[in-house]
Structure prediction request, 177 residues.
Amino acid sequence: MNNKTELVLMLAGLCSLSGSHVIAQTATGQETAASSKSGQVASDQDIELLRKDIRSQKKQLIAANLNLTATEATKFWPIYDQYQAEYTKIGDTKLVLIKEYAQNLDTVTDEQALDYLKRSEEISESVVQLRKRYVPLVNQVLPGTKTATFFQLERRIEMLVDVEVASLLPPLQSRGQ
Prediction:
């Protein structure tokens, strides 16, 4: 595998997990892991450790921006942890798709391309449905403005990760181009 594919796989670990300062902090770590002296591709274990670290940093970023009272925090964080566990499962599915895409990039068939598109849209829809389920749950423990702020932060973090991953994934080309 080439360095670009290795980096894509490392960034795939960021799926649904990061913030702008987190990406900057992990970029160095990714380069180190992706270009290790042994020349090996980052293992699934390496990617999972990176994802856990980013989830932790994401939680810190949300905590710093929500300004929760002690009472709100006591009620909110268990809901957040439950939400994040479900979100991580969706991220796992997205990671599998990104790995497949990166591994088959040069040989993808029309059928595979349409399958990747379909699965990508299903993943996006799963995230939307998850948010819809959790808005009322979060709003039971936080006022409307803090509920909206939380989901704005979530969406912005997701968009930052998606842009970063997309910048490393070349678009599919028709054969002969």
Notes: The chain has six helices and no strands. The mean pLDDT is 77. The two ends are 22 Å apart (CA to CA).
